[in-house]
Design a protein that fits this description.
Elements (H helix, E strand, L loop, with lengths): L1 H12 L11 E3 L2 E3 L3 E3 L15 H12 L4 E8 L2 H4 L16 H12 L5 E6 L14 E2 L5 E3 L14 E3 L3 E2 L2 H20 L4 E5 L25 H4 L1 H13 L5 E9 L8 H12 L5 E6 L5 H4 L6 H4 L2 H8 L4 E4 L4 H9 L5 E4 L1 H5 L3 H6 L14 H7 L15 H5 L8 H15 L8 H11 L3
Parallel strand pairs: 3-4, 3-14, 4-5, 5-10, 6-9, 10-11, 11-12, 12-13, 13-14
Antiparallel strand pairs: 1-2, 7-8
Helix pairs in contact: 2-4, 5-7, 8-11
């Protein structure tokens, strides 16, 4: 009774313009208390074995405590091929059975706040991969070039970056990826998570199959739309078979890649529609690709609604649509009310303000710390530094603050070096080849 009274009092404080964000919604049979979801970011801070660290647990716990309706944890490797070719930091490992009990602790910490949690599965980095020992594979041998002027704000990469072309995956390798992803999902299920998200966005392995620009195959995985969707169909079908009807399966796919020879909303939505028939429970929309990173990390609110791209998916699909790029809660609520999507995903904004949802719900909008979109978090991740937020000094230190621990002595030596690296990387004369030296230095000092 007391809980119901508190809920009614809380609901009364919500301003009418924000109410669409606080209408409950079900994803499969899992109820979300609001429509604000934490989108996936590469911030999981794994242990050496690929399990969630105490810091990872504290980080996600803080966002669950802050009222977030659901959390999507980023890029968990489903096979050694993903862990062997990361472009930046180490990743959570779901291909290791011994990690399952440690993941259970993470799920329990998030569930303590009645917040569902989903894992984004990363089968392989595909065209983006920078392999240590293994060949990187993709649908076809299409190299990846990120032009200098398509990096996000704050990145100065003279001449851009061109990565080596991947090897065209054999049928056997594709089947191995499918099987590994399905097996990882079964571990996620046993660890007590609410679901998984299959990614087909950016320039990762699965996304290379989706459009003809990166898929020149003539076998069962190339050509018509149904063939290009086959890897996603097989993965979703397999996950459903080894989990349960109530287990959430999401699909992450671009709404538009903004490439002249890429694909627009209708083609991506048609792929999603084909996969929907296999039993997915939501579709999460992103923008851009690695070749158009400046569009995948929006610098202003509402582009996905303004363009009409999200509405294409909303009209073609029956499952809930998750949309990105709405830091402003008024614009987010408006986008939902107008039918552009059903749920909004926040990423950087929840780094700056873990209590975003609670403050919004309690009518404390003036106290919300806004993300400045200066990309400090992204730049630090890119150069292998611990991720921090320029607006939130506690971000990345949640476990230490929670446990009342003092700053480790080594940080007094590391922090100045980090600031120097970021200063240098913002200069035109800091040429791209020096990035390799930077990474070697970081490994030497313990990152």
């Amino acid at each position: 009774m007391l809980k119901n009274f508190r809920q009614k009092r809380m609901t009364a404080k919500i301003e009418s313009r924000f109410k669409p964000l606080f209408e409950p919604i079900k994803i499969n049979k899992v109820k979300l208390k609001n429509r604000i979801v934490m989108g996936p970011m590469g911030l999981s801070v794994p242990t050496a074995e690929g399990a969630p660290s105490d810091q990872a647990i504290a980080f996600y716990e803080a966002r669950a405590r802050g009222g977030t309706g659901m959390i999507i944890i980023s890029a968990a490797a489903t096979a050694r091929s993903a862990d062997e070719a990361p472009p930046t930091t180490p990743w959570l490992r779901w291909d290791i059975e011994e990690n399952v009990p440690k993941f259970q602790k993470l799920a329990e910490a998030i569930h303590a706040f009645e917040t569902p949690v989903v894992i984004e599965l990363m089968s392989s980095f595909g065209r983006l991969g920078m392999p240590k020992t293994m060949n990187k594979i993709a649908a076809s041998p299409k190299e990846l070039t990120i032009p200098e002027d398509h990096f996000p704000k704050g990145f100065v990469i003279p001449g851009g970056i061109t990565l080596s072309a991947p090897k065209a995956a054999t049928i056997e390798e594709i089947k191995e990826v499918e099987a590994g992803t399905i097996q990882a999902a079964e571990r996620v299920f046993r660890a007590g998570f609410d679901g998984v998200e299959v990614n087909a966005n950016m320039s990762y392995f699965t996304s290379s199959f989706v459009i003809q620009r990166t898929n020149w195959r003539t076998d069962e995985y190339g050509g018509p739309l149904e063939n290009r969707a086959r890897i996603l169909i097989n993965i979703v079908r397999g996950i459903r078979a080894v989990t349960s009807p109530d287990f959430i399966i999401g699909l992450r796919i671009p709404a538009n890649d903004f490439l002249p020879d890429g694909a627009k909303a209708v083609e991506f939505a048609t792929i999603a529609k084909i996969v929907e028939a296999e039993g997915i429970d939501y579709v999460a929309l992103t923008y851009g690709a690695y070749e158009t990173m400046d569009r995948s990390i929006p610098m202003k609110d509402g582009e996905m609604a303004e363009s009409g791209d999200a509405r294409v998916f909303r009209k073609m699909l029956s499952v809930p649509i998750f949309i990105q790029g709405f830091h402003n809660p008024e614009l987010a609520a408006k986008a939902i009310a107008e039918g552009h999507g059903d749920v909004v995903m926040l990423a950087r904004q929840l780094l700056a303000e873990p209590n975003y949802v609670n403050k919004l719900q309690e009518g404390k909008t003036s106290q919300i710390v806004a993300c400045d979109r200066d990309q400090l978090c992204m730049r630090r991740m890119f150069y292998g530094l611990p991720v921090r937020c320029s607006m939130n000094p506690e971000m990345g230190r949640e476990a230490r603050i929670r446990d009342g621990k003092r700053r480790p002595l080594k940080r007094y030596f590391q922090a100045p070096l980090e600031h120097l690296i970021l200063l240098l990387t913002a200069k035109k004369w800091f040429m791209t080849p020096l990035m390799k030296i930077v990474r070697k230095i970081l490994k030497k000092i313990g990152y």
